[in-house]
Amino acid sequence: MADKAFLVDTTKCTGCKACQTACKQWNNLPSDEISSFPHEYTSPEKLSAITFNHVIITGIESADSSIPILQMMHKKCFHCEIANCITVCPAEAIYKNNYWVIIDQEKCIGCDECVRACVYNVPHLANKDYNEYGTGGFIDKDKAYKCHACTVKAREIPACVSACPSDALTFDFRLKIVAIAKKRLKIIKKNFPDACIYGLEEFGGMHVITILKDIPEKFGLPTNPRPIKPTEKRDGKEYYGFLSGLSFGMPSVKRALYKLSKYLAS
Ligand code: SF4
Ligand code: SF4
Ligand code: SF4
Question: Which of 31, 26, 19, 34 is nearest to 73 (CA)?
């Protein structure tokens, strides 16, 4: 089956957050509790276990003057081909559904390894249950959550893409998405010489391709990020392989056994 992918053209994004809202609506996710506004337009502050898609609005200098112009960035799981989160998970709770990276909360033991291994800070552990919001127990405390590319509650075109009114989000075959991105980059480079495409090569090629007006670092994206090798020693993972059989299937016991495994490995 030919790979599908998202295109995020941040140069077309108007910051309306229709995608952010549509994701909440489709996945029946509650609002984040906001204590302060980090930026007058960016809210909530970051991705969380109940926010899978985040529009970040910042100011950058324009190429030909000192007048700041608003710059958008979209943050959600990049669905890496070589995914650090899958490599490090000791409970085999993260898997590929075709090319999409999915977390199975039934298997998740809340160990935090994927949270720390993802260089983009995408997965988050829920700090409480959200049953009271009528999500039917969809969000459980101490389980990891992130964008599932609308495959868990499936639809043909992801909700965030359907909602975008400015053509900043596209969903299609990856080959087609890459061709569109390269064509668009040529146009953008005339005014923004440092514009680039992120996700073509990073982590083996991502399934979310992003067009940026400037170098990736300006958007908090590392160049040449390092995939964790499956053979790399992970503290505790080996011990946990033996100890997990003693958990009687209880997530809290599994988490405790994982902590013990890390202690034994240290
Ligand atoms: S962006 Fe992070 S959470 Fe998403 S697949 Fe890559 S490593 Fe995993
Ligand atoms: S928090 Fe859950 S999904 Fe993440 S690495 Fe641990 S067990 Fe795996
Ligand atoms: S693909 Fe679906 S789950 Fe992922 S950010 Fe878009 S709406 Fe949310």
Answer: 19
How is the chain split into domains, by residue range?
Answer: 233-266
pLDDT tens digits, 21-64: 999 999 889 888 776 665 556 778 789 999 999 999 876 656 56
* Contact call for residues 174 and 2 (beta carbons, < 8 A): yes
Which residue has its alpha carbon closest to ligand 1 atom 4? Answer: 77
> Which residue from 85, 102, 108 has its CB within 8 A of the most atoms of ligand 1, so it is best to mutate?
85
Tens digits of residue pLDDT in 170-183: 999 999 999 999 99
